[in-house]
Structures are given as structure tokens and as C-alpha cells.
Amino acid sequence: MLRRSLVLVMALAAPSFAAEIKLFNGKNLDGWARMTRHEGDPAHAPGFKIENGMLVSDPTAPEDDLLYTREKIGDATIRVVYKVDSERANSGIFTRIPEMPKSEDDAINKGIEVQIDQGDDDWHCTGVLYSMTKAKARPSKPVGEWNTLEITLRGPRTIVKLNGVLVTDYDGVSPVPPKSKQYEPDRGRRPDTGYIAVQHHGGKGVVTFREITLIR
After folding, report:
1. Cβ pair 111, 97 in contact under 8 A
2. In this structure, are residues 79 and 94 in contact, taking their beta carbons and an 8 Å threshold?
3. Average of per-residue pLDDT across 166-191
4. In this structure, what is the dihedral angle of CA atoms 173, 177, 180, 182, given to the nearest 10 degrees?
5. What CATH architecture is 19-215?
6. Which residues of 121-154 are buried (b: 16+ CB within 10 A; e: fewer)?
7. What are the pLDDT digits (tens) for 96-140?
8. I need a surface site. Which of 76, 80, 122, 202 has the fewest CB within 10 A?
9. Residues 134, 201, 86, 52: is their CA dihedral positive or negative?
10. Which among 3, 65, 31 has a CA at the least distance from the CA of 201?
């Protein structure tokens, strides 16, 4: 009886391991769909291509994001491993998009963008919620080196770490600065779950993604 009780206690105390799901498989764009900047944009060359198992932005292509269509995501961590070839290479990870967006503008104003741009100011740099939170730190690695971005969604709260350093911790309800530029997102409460997307901003440099993983 004592042995059985000990086994039960050990089983209950054993650590639980997170499940990891590769959202980008390194081979094709299964589960992803193109999302242009404006609703009704004409077809054009894709903004991303797959090279050597990695997702690579094409700075010569028009803005052309990728939407993960298989499910809405909440209460999880999204791990993104990427590198840039320029201080002003511009991208981002959209979260909390409440419904299938008609365009990037739709995603910007209804979801939240976690920025990737290590050359901009503290409200528009890597790891912030674009124009809504100020960076607590700026731990980007030098151009050409791999960075690890971890976006944790917990209810309305969003926590962002870059290379293990906290950049953003926003509770989802506290006031943020008013929108000051046309291209900044509309303000307002976002949902606890939503679709995610990878932004292709184009024109300023190449962003290469080695990994996009969902951790639950």
C-alpha cells in the first residue's frame, strides 16, 4: 500500500512537458494563406519564398503577409527564430486577429502586431506591441545573427521576450497612447484568442525565419 501511494505521489509531482507544434514545416506553406495589404489588391509575386528549409522575405515584392488559417490561438507561446540582413528590415507577428482578415489593414486594426524592426524607436522596435507599448529592453542581436522571439498569450495579457530578455508585458486592458499616425493600429480591446500572421513589409531588407513554433 505504501509503495502504491509513493508511486501515485511521484506521478502527480512529475513535471508536465509542453507540446510543441511546428507551424512552419520548412517544406511548403501548408496551413498558411497569402494576405495582401489592401482588400482587393491584384495578384502579384509572393512576398515570401522557401529557401533551404527557411521562410525568406522578398524585399522587391509588394507587401504580402502570411496568415495561419488552421486555428485561432490563445493561452500559448509562439516561438519565432529569425534573422535580418539590415537594421531596418521590417516584419512582425500578428496575434489576436478575431476573424479571417480581408487584408493586412484589417489585421492591423483588429489584432495586435508584435514588431520586428531593430532600427526604429522604442515604440516601434522589435518586441513591442506596435505603437502601443514601449520597449523595456532592446536585446536584438547584430545583423546576420539569429534571434529568438517568444510571444506568450495568457488571456488578454501579452508577454514578449527577445533572446530571453523581457521587452513587453501588457495586461491587455490598461490605457495605451492614442493613435498618432494613420498606419498605426486602431485602439481598443483585443480578443483573448485569434488568428496569427507573419508580416511582409518589403523594401527595407530581408527577414529570414528558421522556426515558427506553437508551444502549449
Report:
1. yes
2. no
3. 96
4. -20
5. Sandwich (2.60)
6. eebbbbbbbbbbbbbeeebbeeeeeebebbbbbe
7. 999 999 889 999 999 999 999 999 999 999 999 999 999 999 999
8. 122
9. positive
10. 65
pTM of full prediction above 0.85: yes
Residue type, 53: G
> What's the chain's average pLDDT?
91
Q: Is 10 exposed, middle or buried (0-12, 13-18, 19+ CB in 10 A)?
A: exposed
Q: What pLDDT, in 10s, does the model give residues 73-99?
A: 999 999 999 999 999 999 999 999 999
Residue of 171, 164, 191 whose CA lies nearest to 73? 191
Distance CA 27, CA 51 (A): 9
Q: Which residues pair with 93 in a beta bridge?
A: 114, 198
The answer to whether 111 and 91 have CB atoms below 8 angstroms apart is: no
Nearest residue to 54 (alpha-carbon basis) of 208, 198, 214? 208
Q: Tell me the three state secondary structure of residue 9.
A: helix
Task: Give the pLDDT confidence score for residue 40 in this predicted structure.
Answer: 64
Q: What is the number of residues in the chain?
A: 216
Angle at 130 between CA 42 and CA 58, to 5 degrees: 40
> DSSP letters along 73-118, please?
E-SEEEEEEEEESSTT--EEEEEEE-S--SSHHHHHHHSEEEEE-T
- Phi/psi for 2 (5° steps) reads -65, -40
